[in-house]
Write the structure tokens for this entry.
Amino acid sequence: MIIRENVEISSLSTMKIGGVARYVFEIEKTADISEILPKLEELGLKKYYFLGSGANTFATDAGFDGAIILNKIKGIEVKEKENKVLFLAYGGENWDDFVEKTVELGCTGVECLAGIPGTVGAAPVQNIGAYGQEVKDSISEIYVYDMKENNFLHLKPEDCNFSYRRSIFNSSERGRYFIYAVEFMLKKGEMKTELYRSLATYLEEKNISSREPKVLADAVRKIRDKKLPKPEEEASSGSFFKNIYVERDRIAELDERGIPHHGTKVNTGWLIEKAGLLGKTFYGFRVSEKAALVLINDSAKSYSDLKKAVAEISKIVEEKFGFKLEQEPNVIGKEND
């Protein structure tokens, strides 16, 4: 593995904030994985943090007195059987490149997750989802290294306690499993379920009737490009705020107040927009004019600035609508030690 010392975490995060990591381990092949624990012990490190492309993670100003472990293992293996296709994608693969591979083979299951930044290994951690699909619904197995038991394992979806933007990997078993590959079982054919409203509207406006995976993936990318900043062009971590879920008995209240929702899921972006925050800047962070859930780092240099910005935005929304905002990205540093 490649080992670097005293690395600015801001250089590893698309939000471009965070102090210094004492070490960074770059894992490029599966043989490197079993060397992680011995190397941590050799260097006297008690703390570590798994990281993919840094699209959904940033760090505190204090940095990290441990090792950030980067998954750089690449490769995609494909096996076809009748109308199903088995994909084994290694954790360091770019997520959107993997999606493109699946749709090129005419497979449905992850086409609406096209354009999401990040890596394959990070996808199950947040249970990424968009336009009516969630990654958990296409996963058949997750290949992991158990840092607690010091062995390799295969986890089934039912082992992972998946829910909205949540899994054991970012909650009860945070830091235990190094995800080095993910197996997906996809079907040949087209998406059968109802299309997400904004996607259906886009297709209607473009007079597109096809539901072929490649067509839907391309449409999703075009919709995302209009709304979401590209991390390489504007520092951000994608959707910063989660959508809010309420109890079913509050749906009538939402309707009475005219608050948009999809079942029990409240449209958090609408709350932020109606609070008059689009385009507003707080401590160097701007609420995107195109996508209210996105915070763009225009000039901030510190996590302290981000924390103050989030607190002010949250306060405004809560005072106006009574809902508490919750951030989606993970934080490396003292808050999570």
User: Anything to note?
Assistant: The longest strand covers residues 177-188.
